[in-house]
Amino acid sequence: YYASSKRARAILGQPRSTIDLRRTILDGGVLLVSTAQGAAGKDVAALVGASILNLADAVIREQGELPQERRRGALVVVDEMQSMPGVDYESMLSELGKFGASLVLATQSLAKLDDLSPTMRDTLLANIGCLAVFQVAGSDARQLVWELDRDRVSEEDIVSLPVHHAYVRATVGTERAPAFSMEVLKPDGGSPATAERIREEASAYLLTEEEIAAQRAEGRRRVDLWLEQMAEEDDKKAGAAGEPERNDPDGQAPKEPRGNRQRSKRQPPGDSSGDDAA
């Protein structure tokens, strides 16, 4: 699928990454990654998201080699986590905290977690330090009411929550605080100036379709040139060795004995175009 998708090749088939996630984390920078399925397709969006998360996981774990005071914290926020399989969320939840990282994971239903792993639901609920429950279906409310506090919150309370309201269970230090309700701030209209600034800064890490096409054309040109050079080299060697003509009197190329056939060890130059390889 990925090799046949023009969009997938454009995003993933590049010779090098334009972002340095290690430097972003060490510098305390911000990286926004859109995994909107409408723009790239469900499978491509999932692969991009999973690749970034797994890379972040590896970079954060590298800080285990540093003294505690030199470790840089990182906040990883994942919306619709169930849409990105291929990520070891269970390991990240149980281990990344000691490297100074915090994870914020969001999903619309506990049942969707079961699609990721049969143990994902239990592992997630056992390792989270803060649980925020917005309005959910009754099947989820029946389990989440026990995670919050059965004596303080009922299933009906959870199912009947207004929009932008949630019940929260938080751990402060080593103590679990009693569950409480809260109202979150409603999203504002946004700032056109901020949006424009983000687009401008993001453009430094992006390539246009025309630039990608030019890279591919250059890559193909280099490979074709290499093939021509190798053919000329072979012809020169054949002439120097006094080999007979390539074609026999019938116009057919003589067959080389099977035992004399050797696979060429020469390889074409690296293709900087980022084009796909079957």
Q: What this model shows, in words?
A:
The chain is of the alpha+beta class. Among the domains are: 19-128, no CATH class; 129-184, no CATH class. Helix content is 43%, strand content 10%. The protein is built from eleven helices and six strands. Strands 3, 4, 5 and 6 form a four-stranded antiparallel β-sheet that branches. A two-stranded parallel ribbon has the order 1-2. The longest helix has 32 residues, at 209-240. The radius of gyration is 28 Å and the shape is elongated. The model is unreliable at 257-265 and 272-278 (pLDDT under 50).
Report Rg. 28 Å
Distance between the termini: 11 Å
So how many helices? 11
- Envelope shape: elongated
What structural class results from the helix and strand content?
alpha+beta
Quantity of strands, as a count: 6
Q: Give unreliable regions as ranges.
A: 257-265, 272-278
Name the beta content range.
Answer: 5-15%
- Report the order of strands and helices: HHHHEHEHHEHHEEEHH
Largest sheet: 4 strands, antiparallel
Helix fraction bin: 40-55%
Average pLDDT score: 82
Attribute tags:
four-stranded antiparallel sheet; disordered C terminus; about 280 residues
List the helices and strands and how they pair.
Elements: H1 6-12, H2 21-26, H3 37-40, H4 42-62, E1 74-78, H5 89-95, E2 101-105, H6 110-116, H7 120-127, E3 130-133, H8 138-148, H9 155-159, E4 165-172, E5 175-176, E6 180-183, H10 192-203, H11 209-240
Parallel strand pairs: 1-2
Antiparallel strand pairs: 3-4, 4-5, 4-6
Helix pairs in contact: 5-7
